[in-house]
């Protein structure tokens, strides 16, 4: 991993054969004031991006978790179209757009695409939701690739200034970001619960007699039985309240865009000329098959291949919580009105763990933290196989959501940070791969959502989780051997 060759508190990989350049010889050491000023700029940049995503995710996630209730079949297929567009964008556009536009304007473009989808929800139909979802998906990949690239660059730069290990700084940076990111659904669901709660008739739970005689909630839940339910089992709120909700979400997304435009400089990979791991395109990137192939070429990296199963699982578990848990466990036994509050417990726990996971990595290392995430998710999957949800224990719905949030936060936060360490020299292509396979996971999860029973879905989830963890540990072993080999070569 080239990142260790130039960064850290000490030179792990000295290159005695390389003579310093004229620029390096002429560089004067920074004064304390200059160093503090640079650190302050980097930290403010990280805070600004994180704050922007709070507003954006509050709007986007708040509306996404309501799609199956507000728009039903159109909404679910819209989500599928969205993530299919994410895959195409990862392959052909995200790397090019980040290199061409820079991190700032790539994020602005991605956020603007999301507002298009929100606008489509004002007049939901096949002709508005599907195109709006495709546009959102097209902007999703460059948005995340730009954010991850920006944080990797900032982490490397901050590590250089503070004389710390880059992987620790990057992990803490992503931890702070995902703490802020995970609070977005909290505010989004509070807003939706407040606005939609004004409906004259709250959405009731599925008819109890049907549950007792036809429908089994939990692992025995099978979507096909929904066709036999009365169409009034889940009531849609009045269109006036939906329009107000979408208008509020559009306002939040607009604030997110303004934060990026006002407070973030347009940083490109390679803006630091003394960092050979980051390629500088100087805004002259051209769309070509070679450039598009960078994302696919990244798959020739054995470390990238080993991480693919875990990326797939992350997408699948997101889809499961967004669609399956809320319908088969919460709505089935308690009603739609509880969904927002359950999602809040999930998001709040995830926000806390996202922030603390970086410190946990520093104290006990990365593998034990990933094992903890594995245990939290495998434990939930096994428990769900045997748990029969009912209206007598509301607290357990929140408990399961919170425990699931622990594993989700660790995997998302620290997988991003791990990518920053593994692929610092090809960050755009690597993070595009991350989002592409994550999107594949969500598409896979949604594609069989209407056809398989929950018990079968749980077995699929557990299998992919185990395979993903095997791939992660293989990556750790290969990476550590490479670092050790580089250290031995450097000392010869």
Automatic annotation (TrEMBL):
<feature type="transmembrane region" description="Helical">
    <location>
        <begin position="448"/>
        <end position="475"/>
    </location>
</feature>
<dbReference type="Pfam" id="PF05978">
    <property type="entry name" value="UNC-93"/>
</dbReference>
<feature type="transmembrane region" description="Helical">
    <location>
        <begin position="369"/>
        <end position="387"/>
    </location>
</feature>
<keyword id="KW-0472">Membrane</keyword>
<feature type="transmembrane region" description="Helical">
    <location>
        <begin position="325"/>
        <end position="348"/>
    </location>
</feature>
<dbReference type="InterPro" id="IPR036259">
    <property type="entry name" value="MFS_trans_sf"/>
</dbReference>
<feature type="transmembrane region" description="Helical">
    <location>
        <begin position="169"/>
        <end position="190"/>
    </location>
</feature>
<feature type="transmembrane region" description="Helical">
    <location>
        <begin position="105"/>
        <end position="123"/>
    </location>
</feature>
<keyword id="KW-1133">Transmembrane helix</keyword>
<feature type="transmembrane region" description="Helical">
    <location>
        <begin position="74"/>
        <end position="98"/>
    </location>
</feature>
<protein>
    <recommendedName>
        <fullName>Major facilitator superfamily (MFS) profile domain-containing protein</fullName>
    </recommendedName>
</protein>
<dbReference type="InterPro" id="IPR010291">
    <property type="entry name" value="Ion_channel_UNC-93"/>
</dbReference>
<feature type="transmembrane region" description="Helical">
    <location>
        <begin position="46"/>
        <end position="68"/>
    </location>
</feature>
<keyword id="KW-0812">Transmembrane</keyword>
<feature type="transmembrane region" description="Helical">
    <location>
        <begin position="393"/>
        <end position="410"/>
    </location>
</feature>
<dbReference type="GO" id="GO:0016020">
    <property type="term" value="C:membrane"/>
</dbReference>
<comment type="similarity">
    <text>Belongs to the unc-93 family.</text>
</comment>
<feature type="transmembrane region" description="Helical">
    <location>
        <begin position="241"/>
        <end position="264"/>
    </location>
</feature>
<feature type="transmembrane region" description="Helical">
    <location>
        <begin position="417"/>
        <end position="436"/>
    </location>
</feature>
<feature type="transmembrane region" description="Helical">
    <location>
        <begin position="129"/>
        <end position="157"/>
    </location>
</feature>
<dbReference type="InterPro" id="IPR051951">
    <property type="entry name" value="UNC-93_regulatory"/>
</dbReference>
<feature type="transmembrane region" description="Helical">
    <location>
        <begin position="210"/>
        <end position="229"/>
    </location>
</feature>
<feature type="region of interest" description="Disordered">
    <location>
        <begin position="1"/>
        <end position="33"/>
    </location>
</feature>
């Amino acid at each position: 991993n080239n990142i260790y060759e130039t960064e850290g508190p000490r030179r792990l990989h000295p290159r005695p054969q390389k003579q310093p350049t004229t620029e390096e010889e002429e560089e004067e050491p920074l004064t304390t004031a200059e160093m503090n000023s640079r650190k302050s700029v980097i930290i403010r940049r990280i805070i600004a991006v994180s704050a922007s995503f709070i507003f954006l995710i509050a709007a986007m996630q708040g509306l996404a978790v309501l799609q199956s209730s507000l728009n039903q079949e159109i909404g679910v297929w819209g989500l599928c179209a969205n993530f299919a567009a994410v895959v195409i964008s990862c392959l052909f556009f995200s790397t090019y757009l980040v290199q061409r536009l820079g991190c700032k304007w790539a994020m602005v473009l991605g956020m603007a695409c999301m507002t298009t989808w929100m606008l489509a929800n004002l007049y939901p139909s096949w002709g508005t939701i599907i195109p709006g979802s495709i546009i959102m998906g097209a902007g999703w990949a460059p948005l995340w690739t730009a954010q991850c690239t920006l944080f990797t660059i900032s982490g490397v730069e901050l590590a250089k200034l503070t004389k710390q290990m880059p992987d620790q700084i990057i992990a803490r940076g992503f931890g702070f970001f995902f703490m802020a990111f995970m609070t977005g659904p909290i505010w989004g669901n509070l807003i939706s619960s407040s606005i939609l709660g004004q409906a004259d008739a709250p959405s009731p739970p599925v008819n109890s007699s049907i549950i007792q005689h036809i429908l089994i909630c939990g692992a025995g839940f099978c979507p096909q039985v929904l066709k036999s339910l009365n169409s009034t089992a889940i009531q849609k709120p009045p269109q006036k309240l939906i329009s107000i909700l979408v208008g509020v979400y559009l306002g939040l997304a607009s604030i997110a865009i303004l934060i990026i435009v006002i407070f973030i400089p347009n940083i490109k990979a390679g803006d630091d000329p003394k960092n050979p791991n980051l390629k500088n395109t100087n805004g002259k990137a051209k769309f070509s098959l070679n450039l598009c192939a960078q994302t696919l070429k990244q798959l020739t990296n054995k470390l990238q291949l080993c991480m693919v199963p875990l990326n797939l699982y992350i997408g699948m578990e997101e889809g499961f919580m967004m669609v399956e848990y809320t319908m088969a466990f919460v709505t089935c036994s308690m009603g739609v009105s509880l969904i927002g509050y359950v999602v809040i417990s999930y998001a709040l726990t995830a926000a806390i763990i996202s922030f603390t996971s970086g410190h946990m990595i520093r104290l006990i290392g990365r593998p034990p933290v990933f094992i903890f995430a594995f245990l939290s998710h495998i434990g939930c999957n096994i428990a769900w196989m045997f748990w029969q949800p009912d209206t007598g224990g509301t607290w357990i719905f929140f408990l399961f959501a919170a425990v699931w949030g622990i594993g989700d936060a660790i995997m998302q936060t620290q997988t991003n940070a791990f990518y920053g360490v593994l692929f610092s020299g090809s960050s755009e292509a690597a993070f595009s791969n991350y989002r592409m396979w994550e999107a594949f996971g969500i598409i896979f999860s949604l594609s069989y959502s209407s056809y398989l029973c929950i018990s079968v879905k749980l077995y699929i989830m557990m299998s992919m989780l185990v395979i993903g963890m095997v791939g992660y540990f293989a990556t750790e072993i290969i990476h550590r051997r490479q670092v050790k080999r580089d250290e031995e070569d450097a000392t010869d």
